[in-house]
Every structure is written in C-alpha cells, then in structure tokens.
Fold this protein.
Amino acid sequence: MSLHVIPKADYLPGERIKVTVRFADGAAPASASFWLVGHAAKGTRRVEVFRQPRPPEVLKKERDEAQAEARQCQEDKARLLAEREGPGGLMGAAWMERAGSLVSGDVSGQLKRYPADALRWDEARSYSYTRKGESQPASVVVRLRLVNPGAEPWTLAGAALVDSMGEEVELARWQEAPIPAGPIGGFVVVGTERVPEQLGCPCTLKLWESGGPRTVTIGNVTFPVIQKAAP
C-alpha cells in the first residue's frame, strides 16, 4: 500500500497533522497513525513503514503494560514534586495537619455554598499562626477538601480573598495533584501573611483553574483568633 500526501500551500513550520490509515485484511493492528510535522528546511519525500501483524491478545497485553507504566510514572512524578516543592510555614503545617504554634478551627458549618460552583467542598479548616512573643497572627490559611463532579481533572491556578468592603487579596496556593473527576476528591491549601483584622473577615474565598470557567466561591470565611496569654 502507498499513500501520497501533498501539503497545503499555507502549511506552517511546526504545524502538525495526524494521518490515520486503516488496513482491510482483518489482522491486528487494524490501523496506524502518523504525525506529519512541517519544517522550513528539513523534510523527506518518502517514508517506509513495515507492519507485522500480531495476535490481538499480544497487543492488548502490551497496551495494558504501557498504561500501567505511564500511571506509575505519573504517581512517581507527583510524589517527587510534592517532596521537592512542598509548602513551608503555616501552609506546610496546614497541609500536613501538624500541631505547633498555631490554632485551627473547623469552619465547615458556617461557610456559604454557591450553586454555580464547579466543585463542592466537604471539609474546611482555617488556621492562624503567631510568631513567638507576638499576640497577633502573622499568617492565615484555609485548607479545603474539594470533590470534582465534572468529567476532567481540576487544577488550582489562583486564589483570592474578598473582604466585606470588596478589597481583594491574592493568596499563595498549594495543591499536590489535580483533583480527579469523581467522589475521591483532593485537598488544596491557600493562605497569606496577614492578620484577620487586616482582611476584614468574614470574607469570600475565590478559587479558579487556569484558562477555564470552572470556579469555586465560598462565603463567610473566618479565621481563629489567638488569645494572648495573661501576664
């Protein structure tokens, strides 16, 4: 079998076109796909491809092994990134749920839900941190468990708090891995180096993904106050 391809007149360098050919002899593999990539100077007039039919069970075994290897690579990558780029300070403490010079509160019961949210939350805690010798929190953080009812994974790209006066504060963010579709869910941590009094809470927390319309808005967010010890 031979296939003759004539590029279009406006074919650009780097442009990619997928070509799929299908075989009529009933043997496996039943088709093959190729990517044609434009180049300003390099190219070839002829490409030879040899097809060796193999039993379907052999192809299925190779496919399953390749998919398992790819999943393992993704898991290893996520673990290594988490170990190398894990959040520090109060965000790290909230992520690991470590005890220390911080106070936390379960704010799940007081938060306001919005029906238009792309994801829903089912766990929420807020944290405040005070440096030694100071009575006011130096940092505040919110830790959320989000469940993704959509069809595609969700990755946190940005977060902000909006106070009762409409002032918006951009937040640092941490997410170990994209939140998969389905009931499993995943955690995100967002925070800033400010005290609650500077934020004017109760606040509205906004989360969004990169280049997508799927957002999460959570109302009535507050942070615990650290009580100053009596002299």
Summary: The chain has three domains: 1-53, 61-85, 89-221. Residues 56-85 form the longest helix (30 residues).
